[in-house]
Structure formats: structure tokens, C-alpha cells
Amino acid sequence: MSLLHRTRRQFFQDCGIGLGPIALGLLAGKAAPSHAASPASATGPGHALHHRPTAKRVIYLFQAGAPSQLELFTPKPKLRELDGQPIPPSVIAGQRYAFIQPDAAVLAPRFPFAQHGQSGATLSDQLPHLAKVVDELAFVHSVHTDQFNHAPAQIMVNTGNAIPGRPSMGSWLSYGLGSETQDLPGFVVLKSGGSLSGGAAMWSNGQLPGRFQGIPFRESGDPILHVSNPAGIDNRAQRDALDLIRDLNQTRHSVVGDPEITTRIAAYEMAFRMQAAAPELMDFSQESQATLDLYGANPGKPSYANNVLLARRLAERGVRFIQVYHSGWDHHSNVEGGVKNKARETDQASAALIQDLKQRGMLDDTLVVWGGEFGRTPMIESSAALGRDNGRDHHPQAFTMWMAGGGIKPGVSHGATDELGFHPTENPVHVHDIQATILHCMGIDHQRLAINVGGLDVRLTGVEKHAPVAQFLA
């Protein structure tokens, strides 16, 4: 090879100097920007904590499709009074909707409500299990978002931006804090209930290295395809093959310096370790019948209940961020029947997770989050052309979420909406404020966890002024 065709990397490699020592010399004594957190290693705790954390891990129960807050959490007597009448024009001025006309008639809540626990939190009769743990929960009834369609709204809640391509919340936490386990991914995704409008963009690593993306687990069998050895290949042969592939990849990395090569090396090693860890993880026979009954889990039938129980098992084994997605909450028609079915699928397991974590001494350092991408309108959606009747449209102006454990003050209800459940009237909370709260509980200042992309600092919570919900923090 002529000198004219040699790369700088090849020159330094052949000279025996290497770029690492040179880079270290250039960086000696030069501090990183104060706003940026140093990335954690792929395994082991990171060093990016900005304050004392109250949680070690997050289990996010994402209810995709947008549950109706008016059927579950916020009874509005005025809606019953105005049922069937057009909503006042002053209420809806300047609003945008996905499907219905702004002058649609009011639809009263479809279920009765009652107060529960010492906190007196109000729930509909469709959440009897959650009512038993209501004093462990903190509700926020004034969440709002900038998006009124499912895909951009789901992506925004998960990544802080409505446009695909930004790092997801689990990726940020993996990047900032690393993983507590070497045998499982630090960020795991579990899905049930159908397809997701936001798709894989919701657990993307975005501009972060590939090793920080979320890893979707399958609902049955091997959690990841091909994690088991094929017939005739034992662990020794597998180890020898991986060692050879690793050496080839490392040689290539020394030439081109592509960071995704190290991601691939790490993925192969993780898969090898998972061959031992995954069968035990997925084996629910270790759980007592009482625990299975508590969640309503059936090991032989994929379900939300199984995924929530699996989330607890992943949390026990050091997984940093577990995202449990359950689809099907998009009730443009028959909101009464739709909410009834979805509450039946999710209420027991969601409440069981709180009970189970508490009795195992894990609730204090596990943050549990429940919510969707937006809420539902106080007005009825009916369309003969679309075959819809007695449903509710998308409502980004106000909806309800709840949190528990991990430094969250229990028995709190924060924020309020007007008498029609349309606009926040007290303590509005943007989805970025929810994200800032989650990062805060994990020991991270949301304004300081950033990466520079094209000269701009990219953050989970964007560039606007947002803050953790102080009233939630214990």
C-alpha cells in the first residue's frame, strides 16, 4: 500500500502508537461540558448521578390508545347534567380534533364512581383492584401533551419528541446510569394487546449508541429469537464461535472505528449470557400459586398479567427500565364496553404489581408509572360512515396518570380540570414534566442529561422550561 493511500488510523496503528493514548493526552485536564452527563458503561452502575436517587429502576405500564379518564378517574357531574347537549362553544374555541366535530354533544361518564382509602381518591367501579392499593398511588389529573394523534403522541411520551429518531426514556437511563445486570439487557420492552401506533421508535436509541436501545421480549418461548443454541451446538462450540467473531470484529473496529461494531460485540456477549439466564427468567413455575393468582397470570397464555409479573422478575434481576405496553384503549366507538374490557385485562395485574413489590421490599426503590399518550373528549363521537357510536375522540388537553414507589409521595392527587373535564384549571403538568420527574427519581437532572447533535444539545425533555412535579416527591 502506498503512503498516499494509507489512512491516518492505519499509519498510527502500524507505528504502534495507537489513537487511544494520543486522545487521552489531548483530553488530559480538559473537563466535559457542565451540562452533559458522562455515558455509563454497558454494564455496571454509571457515574452520572446529579443527586441522591430515590429509585433504582422503573416499570412503566404504558396503556396505548389512550384510556378515558372520564370513565376511570375523573367523575364530572356537569357532564351528566349536560348529557346529549352540544358542548358550549366557549369551551372548545381554537381546539383541533382527529375525527369529531367541535360542536358534538356531551357524553356523560358511563360508570359510577366512589372514593377509596384514607386518601379519598376517586375511582370508577371498573378499577376494584386498584382501589385496594389507592393509598400507595399519586395521581395527576392535569397531564397534557402537544399531540392529538396516536403515533406522534406515543412517540412523544416515550422519547420527548413527536418525530421518530430521538432516544427513548429507557435509552437515556441506560446511557446515563448503565445496567445493574450483566446477564440481561438494561432496557426491556414487553408488549400485549395488539399493535402499537408509535412502533419501534418508542424504544429507539436514537442518536445514542445502539447498545442502549430497548430489547423487545416475545410473549412466549425464548424471549428473543435464536437465543437458544441450535441442535448439535453445545456451549463450548458456541463460545469458540463467539470468540472468533469477537476477534474479527475487534480487528475491524481498530481499522474503521465504527462504534456500532462494539455494540454488535456486546450484543453477542449478552446473548451468550442470556442463554443461561433467560430460561430461569421465563420459568413461572418458580412462582407460588398465590402470586400467579394475585396477578391473574396464566403461564401458558400470553397476556398483560404475564408481562407485568415478568416485569417484576426483570426488576428483581437488575434490569433498569422495563416498558410494558398494552394496546387497545382507542375507543372511538362503544367507550363503555371498550373501557370495561380493557380494565378487566389490566386492573388486577397493575394493582398486584404494587402489592407484590411492597411485600418484597422493592416498592421503595422501584418507580411504577401508569398512563397513556393522551385522554378522551367529553363529547361523543358518532359516525355512520365510520361505523362509530357512543365513543370518545382524542383529547390532548387533559388526562390522568399515576405513579407509585421509588420516592413518590403516596396518597396524593395533583392537578384538576374544569367541570367538563376539558382544560386543566389547577397545576397543569406537561408530559415533559412527567419525564423530568422520572429522571429526578433516578438521580438525574433532566436539564443536564444531554448529547450534542449537530451543535444542539438534545435532551429527553426538550428545550422548553419544565420541571419535576414537586408535589409528587417524597
Description:
This protein has helices at 8-15, 19-27, 69-72, 77-81, 89-92, 128-132, 150-159, 169-177, 235-256, 259-282, 289-295, 304-316, 335-359, 431-441; strands at 44-45, 57-63, 113-116, 121-124, 137-144, 178-179, 187-192, 215-217, 321-326, 366-371, 375-376, 381-383, 388-391, 394-395, 399-404, 412-414, 416-417, 424-426, 429-430, 451-453, 456-458. Mean pLDDT is 84; it is low at 1-6 and 9-47. Strand 12 (381-383) and strand 13 (388-391) form a beta hairpin. Strands 2, 5, 7, 8, 9, 10, 15, 16 and 19 form a 9-stranded mixed sheet that branches. Strands 1-6 form a two-stranded antiparallel ribbon. It has 2 domains: 1-30, no CATH class; 42-225 and 278-472, Alkaline Phosphatase, subunit A, CATH 3.40.720.10. The protein is an alpha/beta fold and 474 residues long. It is globular, with a radius of gyration of 24 Å.
What sort of overall outline do the alpha carbons produce when their principal axes are compared? globular
Number of structural domains? 2
The number of helices is: 14
Please indicate the percent range of residues in DSSP E strands (runs of 2 or more).
15-25%
In this structure, how is the largest beta sheet organized?
9 strands, mixed
Number of strands: 21
Question: Looking at this structure, what is the CATH superfamily of the largest domain?
Answer: Alkaline Phosphatase, subunit A
